[in-house]
Design brief:
The chain has 14 helices and 13 strands. It is an alpha/beta fold and 389 residues long. One of its GO terms (molecular function) is pectin acetylesterase activity.
């Protein structure tokens, strides 16, 4: 009997770990760069480690993480020619769309600064090495940590569950704090973000531009933030259902662009395809046409594939059947159609490659390396620089 009890305990622990892992992937959106420890790849054995700064003034503004703790960022000061240039990188990490998933999230680094790493490596677009990041290495580079679960746009609370949905306030408190530390004197500033942070960089792009004098050069970059309102393999809309919960739960609708909400429902205005054509600030969109996160969690999630027909394909495109590849190619076409009008503006820029990837700016091998993705003989980093000039 004792041995049998131990067997059940082991099974229970294994199941708990499995559930925890599943929630972490689906609710906090572990991207490929995070699978490599925040983008530390074989190309960068000795990355710059940057400490966490909590925003002490945020508490008085009600700008707190899901659990009520102070938000924070990592800042490496610029110098030389980059002393008055600022790069703000909004961290990604999925969304929480109901009380259960948000309560889970507030006990992780995605919902509480208590669990955030005290130091993180700066690689890719955040690297301090000129040979790995030739155009931004000496800028002021800031990574704003993500602990609200609604792409820095919510503003409400759930007292019963002790949840604070204050993403919009966190965004404003962080910008105000950085302005007081010299960002108000920026000659040029770039708002960027990866994944859910890439969506946030689109949502806050014009707001960011308006924080600076007209004499400052201000632009935005969205990396893997072009989430599509696409049909999944079951004929449903998994991501729309998720977004509908996020918008309703976290009070996001009040902070969405009014030019969109006067014509569409709030959930539709959380999808970047309905926003990008109305953004006045120059915007650069970087995305994989076969975005791996969207394939795994929006197009072919387990919930839409109960019999596991897509299981191998969603994890490894080399194992996709011909019909599955045609479905994924349809997704690629849908993405290209979504940015067709946007691409016609000379103020905007694009880098849409056919990689199975998610987030490419913070990984050194996709950001700036000998074998990095190229379009028309331009590396990603060079393509963005061209649009910045």
């Amino acid at each position: 009997m004792m041995k049998l009890s131990w067997v059940w305990i082991v099974i229970a622990i294994a199941f708990l770990q499995l559930v925890t892992g599943f929630l972490d992937f689906n609710e906090t959106e572990l991207s490929l760069i995070e699978a490599f420890d925040f983008g530390v790849s074989k190309l960068n054995y000795n990355p710059l480690m940057v400490g966490l700064t909590l925003i002490t003034s945020a508490g008085a503004k009600g700008a707190v993480c899901l659990d009520g703790t102070l938000p924070g960022y990592h800042w490496h000061r610029g110098y030389g020619s980059g002393a008055n240039s600022w790069l703000i990188q909004l961290e990604g990490g999925g969304w929480c769309n109901n009380v259960r998933t948000c309560v889970y999230r507030k006990k992780t680094r995605r919902g509480s600064s208590t669990y955030m790493e005290k130091q993180i490596p700066f690689t890719g677009i955040l690297s301090d090495k000129a040979e790995q990041n030739p155009d931004f290495f000496n800028w002021n580079r800031v990574k704003l940590r993500y602990c609200d679960g609604a792409s820095f746009t919510g503003d409400t609370e759930n007292k019963a569950a002790k949840l604070q949905f204050r993403g919009q306030r966190i965004w404003l408190a962080a910008m105000e704090d950085l302005m007081s530390k010299g960002m108000r004197n920026a000659k040029q500033a770039l708002l960027s973000g990866c994944s859910a942070g890439g969506l946030a960089s689109i949502l806050h792009c014009d707001e960011f531009r308006n924080m600076f004098p007209r004499t400052s050069k201000v632009k935005c970059l969205s990396d893997a933030g072009l989430f599509l309102d696409a049909v999944d393999v079951s004929g449903g809309r998994t991501l729309r259902s998720l977004y509908n919960g996020v918008v309703g739960l976290q009070g996001v609708q009040h902070n969405l662009p009014r030019i969109c909400t006067i014509r569409r429902d709030p959930t539709s205005c959380f999808f970047p395809q309905n926003l990008i054509s109305n953004i006045r600030t120059s915007l650069f969109i970087l995305n994989a046409a076969y975005d791996s996160w969207q394939i795994q969690s929006s197009i072919a999630p387990p919930s839409a594939d109960p019999h596991g027909y897509w299981h191998e394909c969603r994890l490894n495109h080399a194992k996709c059947s011909a019909s599955q590849m045609r479905f994924l190619q349809g997704f690629r076409i849908e993405m290209l159609n979504a940015i067709k009008g946007f691409s016609q503006s000379r103020e905007n820029g694009l880098f849409i490659n056919s990689c199975f990837a998610h987030c490419q700016t913070e990984r050194q091998d996709t950001w700036f390396a000998a074998n990095s993705p190229e379009i028309r003989n331009k590396l990603l980093e060079i393509g963005i620089l061209t649009e910045q000039e």
